[in-house]
Amino acid sequence: MKLEFLPLSKIKENEANPRTITKDKFARLVNSLISFPTMLAIRPIVVDDSLTILGGNMRYRALVHISQMQFEEIKKRIQGDKVKEAHWQRFFDKPTVPVLKASDLTDEEKQRFIIEDNVPFGEWDWDKLANEWNSEDLEEWGLDVWQPEEENGDKKKPKACEDLSNDIKECFKIEIDCGNEEIQQELFNELEERGLKCRLLTL
Q1: Is 47 exposed, middle or buried (0-12, 13-18, 19+ CB in 10 A)?
Q2: pLDDT tens digits, residue range 20-46?
Q3: What's the confidence (pLDDT) of residue 158?
Q4: Where are the beta strands (DSSP E) in the chain?
């Protein structure tokens, strides 16, 4: 497999993709790609011979969204970075996307890749993240960082070497077997409207 650049319009979103994304995380993904376009070449979209996406559906959606934005909005977000400005100017002139074509996969291997590409086999070392990384950067890059709240509801700024283990609070969750995706989405929307924090899982 080798890296190719193909017109965005020729790439096909995978309708069988089992992954979903919230509006907040989608907005963060769009911002992440705008501010770090090199990531697209490092982690290109993977397609099959029909140019249907096997890996990278959300990045594809984000690129489609970016292609419909005003270029002036892009310039505001990259804050005068001429290299990034030139990158996105080329993209607006000719929207292309870096892809890897997985031509040799069987149908079974394609299905397996779609799932395994999204399975996080490792775990985060939360102590290292708290002590060695900037939590605001992590959140901007798409990682959900738990932060205790002050009495007035404002998030506390984490200290450089703060031990958060004593601040861990009990949480109460339920798991519901929805039976199918339509019921799952309806229940998710209903709970979100009630102000409950939810996330969709497909197991």
Answers
A1: buried
A2: 889 988 999 999 999 999 988 888 999
A3: 43
A4: 3-7, 45-47, 53-55, 96-101
Angle (CA) 59-64-66 rounded to 5° is: 90
Structure tokens at 28: 């963060």
What the block records as the tokens of 134 is 């900037």
- Asked if 46 and 113 count as a contact pair (C-beta separation under 8 A), the reply is yes
CB 6 within 8 A of CB 96: yes
Query: How many angstroms from the chain centroid is the CA of residue 110?
Result: 21
Tokens in use for 63? 């690129």
pLDDT in tens, 100-150: 999 888 889 888 888 888 776 677 787 888 888 888 878 777 777 655 444
Give the separation between CA 191 and CA 189, rounded to whole angstroms: 6
Amino acid at 145: V
State the burial class of residue 147 (Cβ atoms within 10 Å of its Cβ: 0-12, 13-18, 19+): middle
Question: Is the CB of residue 30 less than 8 Å from the CB of residue 65?
Answer: yes
Q: Which of 184, 198, 135 is nearest to 162 (CA)?
A: 135
pLDDT number for residue 150: 46
What's the Cα-to-Cα distance from 123 to each of 119, 120, 127, 128, rounded to whole Å?
A: 11, 7, 12, 12
Using a cut of 0.85, tell me whether the model's pTM lies above it: no
Cα–Cα distance for residue pair 56/59, rounded to 1 Å: 5
Give the Cα separation of 94 and 67 in Å (integer): 10
Closest of 39, 38, 117, 27 to residue 66, by C-alpha: 27
